[in-house]
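Re: the request from the purification team.
They wanted to know what the chain is likely to look like in 3D before they choose a buffer screen. I agreed to run a prediction and write the result into the notebook, where they can find it.
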Amino acid sequence: MTKAPTYFGNWGNVPIDGDVRPFSVLNPIGGDTNRNNRRHHFISAVYMDGFTDERGRVQVYRCEAPEDPHPMNPRAIGFQRDYYSQKLPEGGQENHRFEDLWNTIETVWPETIKALAARRLSPAISFNILGMQTIMRARVPATRDRHALMLEAKLRSEHTIAEEMGLLPPEMERYAGQFDTVPIGINPHETLLAMQGEFKDFGDLCFRLGFEVLHNKTSTPFLTSDNPVCSYDPRQALHARMPYKHSDEVELIFPVSAGMLVRGSSKRGPVNMISRHRDISDSRKVRQINRTIAQFSYRMTIGQDRSSDDLICAHAALVPTITTEVRRRGVKEVQIFCRNVFGPRPVLSQYIDTPEKAARLEAKMAAASHPPDAPHDGSA
């Protein structure tokens, strides 16, 4: 093992293990010259390569039509235009900072997976696996949407209180009495900023868990999804399970390929590292794991073949999300309580950042308040 310069401070001071480099030795800062890519993946394409069939494709089950999967190249799915882009104060837009950060982990992923398949153990391997786990927990739409829902609840309650106190800004007075229902779009920049807190929270969780690698020896490949890091209380029955319940005993599963899965447990040690490899030869246990992966999927479930069609269809209607409850504390303050649940996938309102978008929203709201067959002048 040799040491190399790190771009992540003491936290990234992990020795190189032969052909496995810790991602911290790669420079996460790239330039903007001649870079025009604005198609940002929220699922790493190189990660999905581990789930491809002999033709280099994966089966993609979209939540709105799980009975009709499509074989697709990993580079053609799991992305959204400008997903990580940020407006600059001086004008213009920054498109690459987050992509460059993820790229450090994605660059070392193939060598890390090869070493994992060879049943090797080292700090560099653990570091890279936990790094991929972290970004696949923090950056996905399931996580960003939950933050948007929390911010939406906060804005609705603040404007409701302002209305009660007669303190609405003039531009908001037209929405008086409608703050429970008027569309409220959240600035995507706010949910990008929330990723920092997600990194810390997930890092704290990993310091409670010891990890092992399960090698799938059955004919049923592991599934994955656009929300592949699944954590829960293993004592809860599947039908009564709450996602991301970390207050007591915790189990975490993260499929890294069709043939390997990382499992963490609060009952294992040492923490924050992978300490052993095990085989799993019982197809019923693989099916149980795949059921959990399907349960935690958000927009899509991904498989190497169609052996888990029934599980995917059974869980497509509900996704990990939150419910919010607003409680008043005095005249001006509110407290918002969020609860992780499996429920219908939320439909978020578009963020309004241009006059054209605002005009379209106003027209849509006007049309909804005056159906075509309804009189507009009070006449019968």
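For the purification team: The CA atoms of residues 230 and 292 lie 8 Å apart.
Please add any questions underneath this entry.
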